[in-house]
Amino acid sequence: MRGAHAVATAAAAAGRGRAGPGPGPAGPQPAAAQAVLGQAAPEGSEALPNPVLPPAAPASPTGQGAAAPSAAPRGAPPPAPAGGLGALGGQRGIDRSAPVTFTADEVEYDQERGIVTARGRVEAWQGERILRADEFTYNRNTGVATASGNVQLLEPDGQVLFADRVELSNEFRDGVLEGLRGLLAAGGRVAATGARRTGGTFFDLARVVYSACEPCASDPLAPPIWQLRSRIATLDQQAHQVRYRDASLVLAGVPVFYTPYFAHPDGTTPRQSGFLTPYVGVTRFLGPFVELPYYWAIDESQDLTVTPVIATRQVPNLGLEYRRRFNFGEIEARGSLGYLARGDAHDERGFGYHIFSRGRFSIDENWRAGFDFNRASSELYLRTYRFGVRRYLPSLAFTEGFWGTEGYARMDLRAYQGLRPTDETGVIPNVLPNTYAEWSPGRDALGGYLTLDTWNFVITRDQGTSTRRLAARAYYELPRTDSFGSVWTFRSQIDTIAWSWDDLNLAPNFAVGGGSGTEARANLRVALDWRLPLVRSAGAWGSQLIEPRVQFVTGPNVGSYAMLPNEDSIDFEFTDANLFALNRFYGRDRQEGGTRVDAALRGAWYFPNGGLVEGLVGKSFRFIQDSNFPADSGLQDRASDWVGRVRVSPVPWLEVIGRTRLDKDTGRFNMADVTGVLNLGPVSLSAGYLYSVPTPGLQPPSTREEVSAGVNARLGEYWRVGAFARYDININRPVLYAASVAYEDECFLLEGRFVRNYAEDPSTQGLYPSNTIVLLRIGLKTVADFGFRAI
């Protein structure tokens, strides 16, 4: 007690527990040592005002720019935790009307002067925000609160601010902090000689230093890898921006960049208009160039990114990206407009453009619709300005319906654009329309499964075959298991197809003597599939499996399809994947008939550690030769080629997968595809081999034989390197090789990449202008990424 001022005083109780980082103190507290601010005061006393702690504000993402609600625009940063000085604003979710409770070793109240003083391990909390200090005073007459001596402010997101002294006034909207230091939620560290908050919305820091790097363990006083220094930094919570004056970037203690003014969003809003991180580079076609993207948050549901590209060898290019969300869907559109003013002897010149757009809309609980619209002036334009490598561009409009797992229907319209000068536009198809519907009611009373579907389309070409087709299919499958463990499966499939066509003698059918016509056909396939999985225990080595499988398939001979249009079965490959298919053509325009027997033997060894060694070999025998299969397909004769696969993965760090097709007579490889991965701790090795005879239906026909190899390694804690190469043995030339090296720690990323691509432009028989790429990326975590590209 102090005189007649009736101040409640409590001595520290022996063994009193200190408060942890939670919402309140641990352990029982002496009643006189606790006070609740803003609660109803006892009779004869007055309530103290509520807000003791600084006001809450939301967290900030990285300082690179504002991210939109869906996928970020090209060049925009991905969503990230609060970073930079924007994190000083605190977190959302603090209830400003909640009472502020505090504890202290000693509390006294001077009624004459209206001053509340708390001393000794003072701890106050509002919700999950905690303030600690050696001494805290509050003047009820002036509304000034002061905390001094080891002041700590713990935010709900984990960030901690330290200060030598804090003074708050104007209902705590204004404040001054001396000797500010902070550990921010995103791992950043900030220090300032002082800080001032004005009106509860402006937070000024003087002589501020920020870094996300941890101090060196062996020399804590050594400068961090990077730090941002600024004479004044202002967090404007009303404009949602952080502004810096006289800012500099310091790398390893050496200033490398200075700007008199720099600003970025504080992250308290999902999106905010402003410039995004610029991108610089150099290419053979553009020369040195810079991209300056500007992001415009139009409103809560739409945004626009404008990206001018300024180059020394070409006139400026303008890129646009527009996105909008509706209650029932969304649309996205990316486009550009440019002019190729200079180039090599074979390069095109003139205006160029591109637009890539898509939309998706939900009509009701069953139906949705959408579109993709893609056009470009040329493949060279897309490669030159790095808008992607596209051989052709599809456009479509569709609607589709879903009814649980049983029903599905779709109708779409399709158009294609060839991008190379050598493309014959007259043979490029337009599909108007393409429809598909399927119904599968699930398991029936017999335990079988029925599927009904129909697939119809109209395809038109200006200088090629135009086709109209109606097709329907009924498929039924009934599995059974006998007392010996054999699995018997009965399958049946009925196809009915009707065509109408024009110009069958033109591409892509080239049927000699073909013109216009109509025809309808039906095909029935019935099969009985038997397999016997034989499993035995290998003791501590796991279990082993041997599974013979035989399938008998029969149906009427279908005759020749040479004078019928073929739109969906041109590309064909015989592998173990379609060995047991009832119709081994991928589509409906070609049907397999007659009687055949398929046989395969599968073996596997399953290890207790989850590893396995598995292999399959099989082939097919026809009763009558089928002329519909093209030469070199592996099915052109009565006896098929041998097909097989193997997977070797006895341990988690090794996996080899291979598929092959061997000539039935000579055993020569007609196809081989092998890939392997070996993980040896920090080092990962990969290798591959591909061999294939000319694929039927694809032009120009050519044999492919390639090898590839890659390595990725982590060197120590922070470094990683990688390399990859693919080599074409057939033409004795590399296809591609690439290398990368990167350093990454808790605050800094430095990455370099090199890619050399030997793809040729068929119109010029030369390499594309963007065949060599050099990338350099520098990342200051929680602040920004900077990129450099050379081509």
Assign the structural class, choosing from mainly alpha, mainly beta, alpha/beta, alpha+beta, or little secondary structure: mainly beta
Tell me the fraction of residues in β-strands, as a range: over 45%
Tally of DSSP helical segments: 1
Contiguous runs where pLDDT drops below 50 for at least 5 residues = 1-82
Average pLDDT figure: 84
General shape: elongated
Termini separation comes to 80 Å
Percent in helix: under 10%
Q: What kind of sheet is the major sheet?
A: 27 strands, mixed, barrel
Tell me what you see in this structure.
The protein has 791 residues and is mainly β. It is built from one helix and 45 strands. The strands form three sheets. It has a 27-stranded mixed barrel. Strands 1, 2, 3, 4, 5, 6, 7, 8, 9, 10, 11, 12 and 13 form a 13-stranded antiparallel sheet that branches. Strand 8 (174-183) and strand 9 (189-198) form a beta hairpin. The chain is elongated, with a radius of gyration of 36 Å. The termini are far apart. Residues 1-82 have low confidence and may be disordered.
